[in-house]
Amino acid sequence: MEAGAALRGLITRLAARRVYRDFTEIGIVALAFLLYFIVRGGVVDRDGEAQANAADIIDLQRTLGFFWEPDLNSFILDYGALIQLMDAVYFWLDFPLIVVIGMWLYFSGRRHQYTVARDALLASGAIALVVYWLYPVAPPRLLPPEFGFVDTLAEYNHLSYQAQSTGLFVNPYAAVPSLHYGWAVLVGGVLFWTTGNLWLRAGAALLAPAQLAAILFTANHYMIDAMAGLVVALLGLLVAMALQCWGYTAVQRWLDAPTDATGRPPA
Q1: Partners of 174 in the β-ladder
Q2: Does the first or last residue of the chain, that is N or C, have fewer Cβ atoms within 10 Å of its Cβ?
Q3: What is the rounded distance in angstroms from the CA atom of residue 250 to the CA atom of residue 229?
Q4: What is the distance in angstroms between the CA of the first residue and the CA of the last residue of the chain?
């Protein structure tokens, strides 16, 4: 039997067993983390370049008239409850929420919604990794003291991504694009699409605006980061939609194609 027929059979058998599908999903996530660490290792020592790129972004925003980040960060420092709220939104309503919603979609049988969300997140993440490698940018909280930014997560909570216990998992110069915002748009959209519960839909609709406020108030991103994050998220969604419309159907047609005794498609 030819290699193509053997591969068809292997994929069919794997897809029929839930445990194999589960391990495949774990493998995809592991590969994504591996790529992330490769990129992180290549930018952590490029502080000068990251600072220069940050200065260019600030100059651009000043030219366009919306370098509001210092005022927003300064404003929140007078309100302890607002600091706690924004820090919690920034930290907990990103990767932890993505994991929870992803597990809910996967194990509740919402395979279509899960696959669209997974593909959109992975595709947008892959695009972002390329940008992080090519264009490292220091976030506001890592700018020189004369800018006056305060890292609220580090100063007022124990949630800092730069803590010693989590520093290995953080690219400090991954400001542009802001996946915090871009992924909030994707996750909120998928949750709104999936559920009919009015409360959950309200929370889904508020997720992106809340994350936008959080990334600015906490000095973790610039406004341009959010714009770039939205563009990257939408590109990821387009990739996911293309896979649904053409990619997976082409694979299914290939798997379902009849073969003769030699494993070749019939003439």
Answers
A1: 137
A2: C
A3: 30
A4: 16
The answer, yes or no, to whether residue 101 has pLDDT greater than 50, is yes
What distances in angstroms separate CA 180 from CA 107, 170, 183, 212, 217, one per listed residue?
25, 13, 6, 8, 13
Tell me the average pLDDT across 239-264.
Answer: 73
Burial 5-43 (b: 16+ CB within 10 A, else e): beebeeeeeeeeeeeeeeeeeeeeeeeeeeebeebbeeb
Q: Does the pLDDT at position 33 exceed 90?
A: no
Rounded to an integer, what distance in angstroms lies between the CA atom of residue 267 and that of residue 261?
12
Domain spans of the chain?
3-256
- Give the list of residues 6+ apart from residue 262 with CB closer than 8 angstroms, or none: 1, 2
| 177 upstream amide cis, omega within 30 of 0 | yes
**C-alpha span between 102 and 187 (Å, rounded):** 9
Q: What percent of the chain has pLDDT over 90?
A: 63
Nearest-angstrom CA–CA distance, 8 and 11: 5
Residue 137, SS3 per DSSP? strand
**All residues at 6 or more sequence positions from 89 whose CB lies less than 8 Å from its CB, including other chains:** 210, 211, 213, 214
Confidence label for 163 from pLDDT (cuts 50, 70 and 90): very low
In angstroms, the CA 101 to CA 113 distance is 11
Rounded distance, CA 82 to CA 8, Å? 55
